[in-house]
Design goal:
- By secondary structure, the protein is an alpha+beta fold.
- It has one domain.
- It contains three helices and three strands; from the N terminus they run αβααββ.
Length: 73
């Protein structure tokens, strides 16, 4: 679900999205925990769906947005 949230957010610059735009709906709409958010972000980075940039407040969505589909491991 985290990746679906990220895919629906409009990028602000260079394909980047503010990480809090993913964080807020994940925590408050889905009622997830901070630990679940962290695990989800790490999993998305490991799978190549998101990239954490040098400024840790921004994520870059994978260049090919069609890759942003959830599939079980």
């Amino acid at each position: 679900m985290l990746v679906e949230i990220a895919a629906g957010i409009e990028a602000v610059q260079d394909g980047r999205i503010h990480i809090e735009k993913i964080n807020a709906p994940f925590l408050y709409t889905l009622k997830a925990s901070g630990e679940e958010f962290g695990a989800g972000i790490n999993h998305a980075i490991e799978r190549g769906w998101l990239e954490l940039r040098e400024r840790r407040d921004l994520c870059a969505v994978a260049e090919n947005r069609s890759r942003l589909t959830w599939s079980p491991v």
